[in-house]
TrEMBL record, chains A, B:
Keywords for this protein: Aminoacyl-tRNA synthetase, ATP-binding, Cytoplasm, Ligase, Nucleotide-binding, Protein biosynthesis
Protein name in UniProt: Aspartate--tRNA ligase
Keyword Cell inner membrane appears in the UniProt entry: no
Subcellular location: Cytoplasm
Gene3D superfamilies for this protein: Bira Bifunctional Protein, Domain 2 (3.30.930.10), GAD-like domain (3.30.1360.30), Nucleic acid-binding proteins (2.40.50.140)
E.C. number(s) listed in UniProt: 6.1.1.12
Organism encoding this protein: Clostridium vincentii
Domain Aminoacyl-transfer RNA synthetases class-II family profile: 147-561
Amino acid sequence: MGEALGGLKRSMYCGEPRESDIGKKITLMGWVQRNRKLGGLDFIDLRDREGIMQLVFGEEINKDAFEKANTVKPEYCIAVTGEVVKREATNDKMPTGMVELKCDMIKILSESQTPPIYIKEGLDASEQVRLKNRYLDLRRPDMQKIFILRNKVTKVARDFLDNNGFLDIETPILTKSTPEGARDYLVPSRNYPGMFYALPQSPQIFKQLLMISGFDKYYQIAKCFRDEDLRANRQPEFTQIDLEMSFVEEEDVIEVNERLISTIFREVLGHEVKLPIARMTFKDAMEKYGSDKPDIRFGMEITDLSEEVKDIDFVVFKGALENGGSVRALCLKGGASMGRKDIDRLGEFVKTYKAKGLAYIQLKEEGIKSPIAKFLSEDDMTSIISKMSAETGDLILIVADKNSVVFQSLGALRMDLAKKFELIKDKSEFNFCWITEFPLFEYSEEEERYTACHHPFTAPMDEDLDMIETDPGKVRSKAYDLVLNGEELGGGSIRIHDMELQQRMFKALGFTEEEAWARFGFLLEAFKFGPPPHGGLAFGLDRIIMFIAGTDNIRDVIAFPKNQNAYCYLSEAPNIADEKQLEELGINIKVKEDK
Amino acid sequence: MGEALGGLKRSMYCGEPRESDIGKKITLMGWVQRNRKLGGLDFIDLRDREGIMQLVFGEEINKDAFEKANTVKPEYCIAVTGEVVKREATNDKMPTGMVELKCDMIKILSESQTPPIYIKEGLDASEQVRLKNRYLDLRRPDMQKIFILRNKVTKVARDFLDNNGFLDIETPILTKSTPEGARDYLVPSRNYPGMFYALPQSPQIFKQLLMISGFDKYYQIAKCFRDEDLRANRQPEFTQIDLEMSFVEEEDVIEVNERLISTIFREVLGHEVKLPIARMTFKDAMEKYGSDKPDIRFGMEITDLSEEVKDIDFVVFKGALENGGSVRALCLKGGASMGRKDIDRLGEFVKTYKAKGLAYIQLKEEGIKSPIAKFLSEDDMTSIISKMSAETGDLILIVADKNSVVFQSLGALRMDLAKKFELIKDKSEFNFCWITEFPLFEYSEEEERYTACHHPFTAPMDEDLDMIETDPGKVRSKAYDLVLNGEELGGGSIRIHDMELQQRMFKALGFTEEEAWARFGFLLEAFKFGPPPHGGLAFGLDRIIMFIAGTDNIRDVIAFPKNQNAYCYLSEAPNIADEKQLEELGINIKVKEDK
């Protein structure tokens, strides 16, 4: 059993002693990073969350302490008392590197077995081992830094929102399905056997109700839940900075959120975000970058060649144009030298985005090479090259198809080429951009109906109101996303606050009145009582932290994450439940299957 | 459909205009509190979260606005522009009562039906109607105040903890059973059909793991879940201010939490909590007040009469003493005049706490009256009266039984009498008290074994370590509760950080090694790697807000609460689930029962 503190108090963190502390008698507590003997002395590096301090023990300093120090091993938890002295061999790399602690007392608070992972900067273990031994993984200084950073981000965000009149109000976790459309986690009810709560995918409806309640400005750092198959950077539970404001229009929401984001980046990273942040309509983003979250740290925009090729007798181009599609292209600077095989691979790549193929034009020193050259007159070729602003040495890559396929495939190809050819020069850049004027609806081939692009409470743009019934695909919405370096940081919208309009919206989405009331009746009911104009936004907090911490793994920014099967290696959740409890809940397990 | 804002910006809250604003042109937005005509003018009281402002419309101010203002009804949401002018008939009761707004523009942003509850201070509706129409109930100024207060309490707590080096770290909601011993909410897993997550009853294990991770000081304002039958002031989901510290002993945890609580009461209420807060051992609390959360705003302590009555030949007293119990009493000042029926009712009352009866001695002007007088000599009577410090006019109430029954029944009787006889003089007093030295174990008659009083990670007091195996009922723990006016505000303990001791603890609790590892193995495993001494505490945030807001209904301090059956009248959760989803989860509904 370890020794008790017995009233001993720590006087500093290990990372704190400096030259100005020389001569002070202090007490430190922490974990042994390493323990080595040198010239009859015993040196221990002692670590806590704030840093590392070198301890020195010697027979002539204190014999008992020296002998006990000899026995400690890495990750023992110890307390020591001693005098801060100047170090002989100083270490510039450590903030405490000018001093060391001459120790006359050591308590072994607890011992440690050899840990299964090294506690140091950088990774040495598989993710499974790290997650299983998360408490040790979290001891690593780079993980400690991430959670100190995360704490700072939420604190700065809260301070900002508080200063701007937002009220932090908690919304329920045990609730009813919310309208995001992903799969809910369910919680069986004991009081109502056969009935279920749902965990919220977001506080969407409740924050709108808070606006109807007159709270005016709401925020919450809110846990959200989605029972989806986890792609690389998703977790079953994740955190949003969620906010909503009354008596506002798009500009107001955008303005306050720009200040929020710039405050976070300034206070946490010392980085100045240039305000106002650039804006781009959804249409422009798709046409230029083939994406609603364009990475605009580099150019290589998509160019529309439909006009240039409209008279060409090439069945692929003709077919695309006749079916209402388009012919568009990228120009890869200096790409003409790419070999046939590599270009073929690009062709395979775009096929994964449903493009039928990839035409290309190589502008080589020795002349133009292109499999479609035979369909083009010299004038055609000249006008294409001119439209693409292509020069000798460049490679033009062309997709002809319906627009959605053209955008998606060229957008993905653009990102793929950027990676391959390192088109993003400054990796430390934070390039923000608002995307606006999203479509209100998108057509779901699967469900054979229009679905809401954001959610069914998003307001249409005033000028497009008339098209809700006649041409829903063309209606734009008062929605906005904030994109950083090609990733969505957050998004929101002005909401519908009019019951009639909300009902038109539900109708366009194919809900019967009964279905709409069954799902969202309490919100519709609330609309009867003077709802204010309102709108809001939610940022993915985990994603913000990933950017700020410079990691591309969401599991690095969540203290106790789950794996891609939503399994926790540490606690072994999910796990079996007590038969008696299932009995009380009125449920049976149908399938019993071990994975 | 309501009018659009069309770029109109609010310049102030309704509660803000003052005499110093006279002459300013401002725009306000809010809800119509009332609309009345007077002397050819139209007066509207406009309300938002910050207060109420009087608007005035007239034909000669602006005819269009006047006519439109005539049409608005209570709870319409409107925007107005006008000039702040001095009010003729000032109103001292309103902060804005010196001015009014002479309006030349009004927009009706949305209309309202007649609301089912009045939007005003004070209650006029049943709780069910309030909860069903929560968005309207929350518009009432007293509810708005509560959530503005709640926001302030959490902000002050966060600022304090941040300033004191605590890191806000999120712990999982989808997790495994935690050791509190109440019933968990379960969440069926889709990836592992037949397996379940549990919602946390507290972040207990995770916060201890964070200490083992070296985070040193953790806090979280954490949602917790218990699927229990809801007593008056319980909710299935509730919120804790949860914290944990490394390298500390009891004094350290108590000290920082005293400062936290006093900071909250000072910053939010302007109330100075006298520090240090008084302390009482569990033993004293039980012996003097018959409760581990004693209300010490009044005296009337329990007095032990065992010594005085030990030789009396009264079977009830004798029996109690022979069985290791005791004879104890309360002295109700001025209670001698209580009638027989009322005293009988007190006898019925203590029977609900398993006491077999209530003996009494009335010290009337005309002489002593007592059904047990016949068993007592004059000397016995004198020594009882003297021990009780009773005087003519007082009533002595005696219970003889085993100690647990004596304490519980007299403790409850003490509170009951305090209420009936208004013994608590100053209702605005905040009387804090720490209760310490809780027993580590309590014997569960039902389970026929010892259970943990707090939780199985609570450390025993050093001086009692040896009794864990030999006399577990006598072992005291390093646990502490903070009690305010007879209610538990929070509690915590120093934790065991030694695996051997933890295993002795589990053994004493009757867990086999296998059971202990199945439930808490990941914590035991973590103990192998240098766990620091640590301890912490959790406050019930909802309860703190209840005290600060002066309400005794927990549902008043939760924005969207559930009723006592854990049902939400507003969203109608829990509700039926989709068959397809249950299929994916691999569960069947066994009972289908509508309540």
